[in-house]
Design goal:
The protein is of the alpha+beta class. It contains three helices and four strands.
């Protein structure tokens, strides 16, 4: 549950003022997928491989503004793995970021 809360918290923190946050839960075959997507600053391609690392902050200046310590996504990844799932992150900077939690049924 804490992983989901961390992902939603990130969506709220990094969505622009008139942005959109979407949450979608669906079953595809034997998988359950929970997608959280938001418009906003996004994540640079070179940062994506590191965003689940503890204390990693892609933009130090912005992370101070939103009071981040770089632990939320690390916690979300650990929580997902504890229940047999995984988290996939995709982003187009300054457009959209999508985090997908995938669980096997």
């Amino acid at each position: 549950m804490s992983g989901l809360v961390n992902q939603l918290d990130n969506a709220f923190k990094y969505t622009n003022q008139k942005g959109i946050i979407k949450v979608n839960l669906k079953k595809e075959g034997k998988q359950i997928k929970l997608k959280i997507e938001n418009t906003g600053i996004g994540i640079k391609k070179e940062d994506l491989p590191h965003i689940f690392d503890r204390f990693y902050q892609a933009d130090k200046a912005r992370s101070n503004f939103v009071h981040s310590y770089g632990l939320g996504l690390s916690i979300a990844k650990i929580a997902a793995e504890k229940i047999g799932g995984k988290i996939i992150a995709e982003s187009i900077p300054n457009e959209i970021t999508v985090f997908t939690l995938v669980l096997e049924d």
